[in-house]
Amino acid sequence: MSRHMARLERNDAIFAEMMTRYVRIYLTFAPLIPDASKQAAKLKGDERFSRYIDAVKGQLERRRSVFEDAFEEFVPSAEDFFEAKDLQDLKEAGHA
User: Fold this and answer.
1) In whole numbers, what is the pLDDT of the chain averaged over residues?
2) How far apart are CA 8 and CA 13, in angstroms?
3) CA atoms of 75 and 68, how far apart (whole Å)
4) Which of the listed residues 11, 29, 73, 83 has the most CB atoms within 10 Å of its CB?
């Protein structure tokens, strides 16, 4: 249970850091839209947001989070570690 909570806390911290950096960069570099172009920009934004929502829905339907996909190779799982029995077997075979 404590490992699960630690993983959730780590994911929350990663998410918060990602969002903070994204918003800071976006607000720093996003150009202002002239009034004459705002309606076209809104339509394009609505279209892009719809594609974004579809991508999120697809990810959730696969029951995999973006964090799982992005960090899978960096975060060890229980299968990556020896169990006590494995270590004992290695000792008995003279490999440890």
Assistant:
1) 84
2) 9
3) 9
4) 11
7-18 pLDDT, tens digit per residue, is 889 889 988 998
Q: Which two tokens stand for residue 50?
A: 């719809």
Mean pLDDT of 67-73: 69
The encoded tokens of residue 89 equal 């077997």
- Residue 34, pLDDT above cutoff 60: yes
**Amino acid in position 28:** T
CA 86/CA 46 separation, integer angstroms = 55
Question: Are residues 41 and 47 in contact, defined by beta-carbon separation less than 8 angstroms?
Answer: no
Type of residue found at 4 = H
Alpha helices in the chain (DSSP H): 2-29, 38-61, 66-71, 84-92
CB atoms < 10 A from the CB of 13, how many? 10
Token pair of 4 as six digits: 């699960």
